[in-house]
Amino acid sequence: MLNKIKKHIGKSIIGNETKLKMALAAILSGGHILIEDLPGTGKTTFAKCLTAALNLDFKRIQFTSDLLPSDILGFSFLSKDAFEIKKGPIFTNIVLADELNRASPKTQSAFLEAMEEKNVTIDKETFSLPDPFIVIATQNPSDLSGTSLLPESQLDRFMISFSLDDLTSEQQLNLLKNRDLTNISRNNELDFKDLKTAPKININDNVYEYIQEIKIFIQNNFPMIHISTRCLKQIVSLSSSLALINKKEYVTFQDVKSVIPYVLKHRINIVEKTKVLQFIDEEILNKVTLPDDE
Asked: For residue range 98-114, what is the model confidence (pLDDT) as tens digits?
């Protein structure tokens, strides 16, 4: 089933195989995704293709400085002597929060409850969001004029972050020749609920110890980097989903190493953004020994 999903996505997305696999693993884990990239690189198409391949509902919200929380969550209005609730675009399976950092902090915070609790509150009344509910947010790393930096509390709710790969000359030529890449068809043969019945992935205690050792190493050597309990749980969940996609029955150390850069990328701000992945590889992963090696 997972091979069919990846094949369906591949019809509209060129390259980015690793990013697609990691994004799919995040969605299977119920995690949110942050894409930091320049305009016109295919972020919206990427999100739409994932949604269509999983046969889920999709909505896009363009964030601007004058966007209000009620524009996202919904509002109540008086109709025939009674108040009714008009639900906002956040009530969908996958919502693309385009340029999330261009909204005011008050509007950004409207996502906090939704991302963590899968609920929203409209005029003191709480509503459950659809299952699954995934936020794919984007921000432009080069143009920070008129933006509000995402607070740590919100960044920590994102399971993974990444930038899309640059296309090779051959891939770029293929994109220019094929005008049907934006014609995204929905995979009506798939029921997302079937993915929830996937076999349980086993995790050895040594893997848990390795994840804990990574946190301890970061705390001891880079105290300015905050690794929350939520972050550790995301590593475990994402590693399990990646093992499932790779058709394995258990999580390996390599699965953990593969997901760590995606989970930590948006949580590290002590080095330049362009050097974060190199920092994670050289200063963290290469220096934390595996439990079996001790």
From this structure: 888 888 888 888 888 88
Q: What's the CA gap between 187 and 53, in Å, rounded? A: 5
Exposure of 41 in the CB half-sphere (CA atoms within 13 A): 19
The CATH class of 1-176+192-197 is: alpha beta
Give the Cα separation of 63 and 109 in Å (integer). Answer: 13
**Low-confidence spans in the chain with pLDDT less than 70:** 1-2, 11, 141-147, 178-183, 196-198, 292-294
Rounded Cα distance, 230 and 261, in Å = 16
Q: How far apart are CA 193 and CA 129, in angstroms?
A: 16
Q: What is the pLDDT of residue 16?
A: 79
Cα separation of 119 and 114, whole Å?
Answer: 5
What are the boundaries of each domain within the chain?
1-176+192-197, 199-289
**Residue in the structure block whose two tokens are 């902090």:** 105
Q: Is domain 199-289 in CATH 1.10.8.80, yes or no?
A: yes
Q: What is the pLDDT of residue 144?
A: 62
